[in-house]
């Protein structure tokens, strides 16, 4: 089939791919929250309780009526009668009347009549049963009100949200100990090449160990998928067809590496085209590294053909494989990717009209964070292993100057 007739920008290519995928709800499994970190919840969760469930103090000090402290200072203190102490984990056994106070600890329940808490360091004992107020406090100062964090029935997590440690803690605070999450999509990984051998085999002359299957499996795992490494395919059309057909039957997404260069040995595109409609959607992306990328959908299942060079494969996987896994998980939240602001250590050249992703090493200096580009060849995986992130050069730029401010996408 014709190759590279139209090179799409990576953002446009991704829209084409995602737009061709069916909108299906992912299968669901129930998990205890202790095992649900980084999983994607399958449905909306509403709060069964208010959080906090009662008015409580945020400091150690004295529960007070704010009006009783107005005008108090170190030179002109106010005096309040201490009528009790709030027990931790229990309801106060006293109410506050004008001119009264009670000792309270952080997290303690505010007694009826109190509307603020005086910090302990802004008070001192004047005589037994009486305290000096050395600073006035405003109404609601140092107080959390019932439902201030979450109200009863409030939507706390929308379906499609990835659970971070904060969300896990919030669920436990509400007594929600089990959640329904999207099942991890199975991602078939096929590596091809007559010269490729498994990592545990000593390569002979002209052979190389399989790098991409393992690095891609790690990326899939980190993104929330289940990698299924399906071995090394010989450069034969029948082998490509047999392995891809079986992978499409058993997996939710198939990723193929190598076999996508613009050469007579390119079997990936023609095999995808035979596996189901609509077939190949994109053959060639206007990006460096990774131009010979293939994006396809076969009867509703995505297939991505990556360049064989390890650096190119990983950069392109970040641009296309990761978002497709998000789609299969039903991920809805649009939290930005982690980035670090830095300035370039040198000039970076680029070809106008093409998007470049340049590996950089981050170096902390007295003047701030510096992004030091790593000049690489795309078949050298440790070029990427030595990098902390990628700098994106947009298509409308011919490069970036030294000291330019850049956002480094962490890898």
UniProtKB/TrEMBL annotation:
InterPro entries: MoaB/Mog-like_dom_sf, MoaB/Mog_dom, MoCF_biosynth_CS, MoeA-like, MoeA_C_domain_IV, MoeA_C_domain_IV_sf, MoeA_linker/N, MoeA_linker/N_sf
EC number annotated for this UniProt entry: 2.10.1.1
Residue ranges of domain MoaB/Mog in the record: 188-327
Pathway: Cofactor biosynthesis; molybdopterin biosynthesis
Gene Ontology molecular function, alphabetical: metal ion binding; molybdopterin molybdotransferase activity
Record-level GO BP terms: Mo-molybdopterin cofactor biosynthetic process
Cofactor: Mg(2+)
Record carries keyword Nucleotide-binding: no
Catalytic activity: adenylyl-molybdopterin + molybdate = Mo-molybdopterin + AMP + H(+)
SMART domains: MoCF_biosynth (SM00852)
An annotated GO cellular component: cytoplasm
Keywords, ordered alphabetically: Magnesium, Metal-binding, Molybdenum, Molybdenum cofactor biosynthesis, Transferase
Keyword rRNA-binding: no
Function comment: Catalyzes the insertion of molybdate into adenylated molybdopterin with the concomitant release of AMP.
Entry's family note: Belongs to the MoeA family.
Name of the protein in question: Molybdopterin molybdenumtransferase
